[in-house]
Design a protein that fits this description.
This protein is mainly beta. It has a single domain, classed as Porin (Beta Barrel). It is built from two helices and twelve strands; from the N terminus they run H-E-E-H-E-E-E-E-E-E-E-E-E-E. It has an eight-stranded antiparallel beta barrel with strand order 2-4-5-6-7-9-10-11. A two-stranded antiparallel sheet has the order 1-12.
């Protein structure tokens, strides 16, 4: 996590430095369509109050990844929108005290809608929503002899869909090649529903041990790196 925050600070410094060196009144318009993609890697959690309060189960640091294709339209030089599709791997490793580790691995197809606001030409904030469709859920058990893992398909025990809130910030380097932009940033995700199927939870370890199970909330924070290409070529403007 420390390295992530140091990288974000560096991005902020570079973005403001680039703006300071840019000639006032000159630049390339951002308006128009772009398409591209990105990859993301970061920390993932499945938050659950029952698990947090249970001394026999301990959530461990877990990671996941995402691959995305996106279509971008900038309405003005300040405001844009993004529609994209993602393949998401969201994981949570648990330690059963005195027994061993196991992992819940959720694979989603995500449909994302975001609005983007450019604070300066190189730096932006974005926020919106993701509609996650569950493609597969697995329980990976590392508690066997010699830590051998066994994987069980538990898709039926988890919610088929869940809506999530997205918020992020990023740095955009324009024209690293003809028409090609580079993006690097940080994005947070918070689930707005219950990731576990309440009827299936009774058979899903360790959730089935709780008489009244609290919601299972997916949360993540990750760095992303992407490229996008301008479909409509940029024009120059001056004041």
């Amino acid at each position: 996590m420390k390295n992530y925050f140091l990288l974000i600070i560096l991005v902020f410094v570079l973005s403001f430095d680039c703006e300071a060196r840019k000639k006032r009144g000159l630049g390339a318009t951002k308006k128009g369509f772009r398409f591209g993609g990105y990859g993301s890697y970061g920390l993932t959690w499945l938050l659950n109050k029952n698990i947090s309060d249970d001394p026999s189960i301990k959530p461990l640091i877990s990671t996941g990844n995402e691959y995305c294709f996106e279509l971008i339209y900038n309405f003005t030089d300040k405001i844009g929108g993004t529609l994209s599709g993602s393949k998401v791997n969201h994981n949570q490793i648990y330690e059963e005290i005195g027994v061993g580790n196991f992992k819940k691995s959720l694979q989603y197809i995500g449909i994302n809608g975001l609005l983007k606001y450019y604070v300066i030409p190189e730096f932006y904030f974005d926020s919106g929503f993701r509609y996650n469709i569950l493609s597969k859920a697995s329980n990976i058990d590392y508690r066997g002899r010699n830590n051998a893992s066994t994987s069980t398909d538990v898709t039926q025990n988890f919610s088929k869909t869940i809506t999530c809130f997205l918020f992020g910030m990023g740095y955009e380097k324009e024209e690293i090649a003809k028409g090609l932009n580079l993006n690097i940033g940080l994005r947070y995700l918070y689930g707005l529903g219950n990731a576990i199927n309440t009827s299936g939870a009774a058979t899903e370890f360790p959730f089935g041990r709780y008489l009244n199970l609290s919601d299972l909330i997916p949360v993540s924070v990750g760095m992303y790196l992407g490229l996008n290409y301008k479909i409509s070529r940029a024009k120059r403007y001056s004041h």
